[in-house]
Amino acid sequence: MIEASQAHPAAIEARAVTKIYRAGESRVAALDRIDLAVRAGEVVLLMGPSGSGKTTLLSVLGCILRPTSGEVYVEGRLASGLRERELARLRLSHIGFVFQSYNLFPTLRAAENVMVALDLKGVRGDAAARAARDALDMVGLSDKQNVLPEDLSGGQKQRLAIARALALGPRIVLADEPTAALDSVNGRLVISLMRDLAKSQGRAVIIVSHDNRILEFADRIVHIEDGKIAERGAALAGTPLSS
Amino acid sequence: MLPAMRLPMTGLIAVRNLLHDRMRLFVTLTGVVFSVVLIAVQSGLFVGFTTSTSCVIDNTDADVWVASKGVRNFDVTNPLKQAKYYQVLSVPGVALVKRFIVQFANWRKPAGGMESIEIVGFDAITGMGKPWNMTDGDSALLDIPDTVVFDRFYLGKLGVTGVGDHAEINDRRARIVGLTRDIRSFTTSPYVFASLRTALEYTKYKADEFTYLLVKAAPGVTPAELARAIKARVDAVDVFTSREFARATQWYWMFTTGAGMALVIAAALGLVVGGVVVAQTLYATTMDHLAEFGTLRAMGAGGPYIYKIILWQAVLSALAGYGLGISISFFVVHNAGRGGANIVLTASMAAGLFFLTLFMCTAAAMVSIHKVVRIDPAMVFKGA
Question: What b/e string do you get for B47-84 counting C-beta neighbours within 10 Å, with b at 16 or more?
Fold first, then answer.
């Protein structure tokens, strides 16, 4: 198990997390006693073959999926056992999501896409407009505020998705294949942006990816196979948090 | 930054979702408009018919109506005998009693051809039961023998052109001395007003026969008290307050003949069809945007936030559809009146229909909400 030191508590941590899917009589362990802790300012890359359980792990860490057993801590708070409404509040206040297919609102302009996230937290009116502008500035889309997603390039869409995720100031960012739909230039740009934001603003960033081009941007690479952290990944994941 | 930002974000998303697919919006609005117009017209017909069945009762200044035993409506009943007049007159609490005749007759047009009419014979001295809404001529002239007044709407049907024309009623000469407006009969036979004396000549009634006794209560006596007193002292008659007799007549024509039920069913069908169309299109819109709703859930939006978006869509559809629908309905009602249909669409009916439309659309939205409730936020991650 990961030992989270008192001096450097993990931003997010999974302890002995197991997720079992049942289909009729059969049981499939998508995750098998996973231990993982990610500190603030750290970029962790989850890699593994399709069906290895990395997206399931991301869902569990994001408090979207409940583990069958084990515990998830979000900034020191035990998420397991919370009710749906409390989990939604926890996600809203602590976790930002970036998706492979962007999941933007196609009918809303760029600034409005960011303002939706702010609206969920009760930030509205001029304050929301200012915050949206700042978030778009941060990802280099200040000149695209009134543009619909369909008029943005793939890279711009993903940067907009990042702006939306970061607008609420989450300490944890979870990204699912954020470069999968991008060419190499845009892919590097997006990952580089995520790393910069992690380092400059002390956010914990966990990225699920198949993309070998982005390995250099990660502080740690965790390999998952058959629902378990593989040998090499385990060694990396086991790196003391204080190191 | 953006003008539309004045709406709450849930409203803005709803507006954009609706406008995103114009054809679907068109179908949604068509459903709402269809529903509003159908309900408005059918309800208007219902109210119009209902009002017309009792219009003579409602416009006659009597407190109590006395009729032969077993009467079910204003238009069809047996005659009473003169003895009843005196019996009623002797009841304490009675201030005034007047005879009143209602009887079907045949109208022979000047150019040939017959129409059925309904003679309404009233006491010309007191004027109790006289025609109202006079537009031409003078009802006071009905004191002259063989004169009649009817609604100008029936001029064409009765084959005459206006005041001064002549025709025959049951083979007896009739001169038109006045015209009214908006006195429509529920039956196909127009009301033709005449003095009691003239009406006796036109109908086959004997000199001591009449159809109703119209009674005025003495000061301090209520119509209900008077009706009870007459019932207690006069046998073999039915006694109603004006209100009771109007309701009994309305009920008879609207619900024992099936006419009213047909209108109610048509209006209900409008509600159901409109509701189904709105539910279908809202559901399709919701399905189109399911990924976005899933994203909202993943980001931490509670169920009520997403329900608000769907309800906004329903309410906006209702507002737009109602606005169009009620405008069309008023246009239809206005023009139908010229064509002879008695459709009543009042402001209070329009207000009621507004709330009914809102209810229909929000109820239709429940189908979509039911779907959204079951969204698994994990859908946002591929393969999860």
Answer: bbbbbbbbbbbbebebbbbbbbeebebbbebebbeeeb
Residue among A50, A146, A176 minimizing CB distance to B381: A176
Weakly modelled stretches of chain A, pLDDT under 50:
1-7, 232-243
Segment B49-81, tens digit of pLDDT: 888 899 999 999 999 999 999 999 999 889 999
By C-alpha distance, which of B251, B252, B226, B261 is closest to B92?
B226
- Max Cα-Cα span within chain A: 55
CA-angle at A35, arms to A33 and A40, nearest 5°: 155
DSSP 8-class letter at B219: T
- Determine contact: A16 vs chain B, CB below 8 A: no
Query: Can you read off the two tokens belonging to residue A34?
Result: 């996973």
Minimal Cα distance from A133: which residue of B? B1
B2 vs A51, A85, A109: nearest CB: A109
Encode pLDDT of B125-164 as tens digits.
999 999 999 999 999 999 999 999 999 999 999 999 999 9
Residue type, A158: Q
- The interaxial angle of helices B290-299 and B347-373, nearest 10 deg, is 70
Q: What's the 3-state SS for B250-313? A: HHHHHHHCCHHHHHHHHHHHHHHHHHHHHHHHHHHHHHHCHHHHHHHHHHCCCHHHHHHHHHHH
Contacts of A56 in chain B (CB under 8 A): 384
ipTM of predicted assembly, 2 dp:
0.85
The two structure tokens encoding residue B313: 């869509």
* Domain spans of chain B, in order of start: 7-52+258-383, 70-235
**Apex A107 CA angle, A58 and B295, nearest 5:** 20
Round to whole Å and give the CA distance between B217 and B219: 6
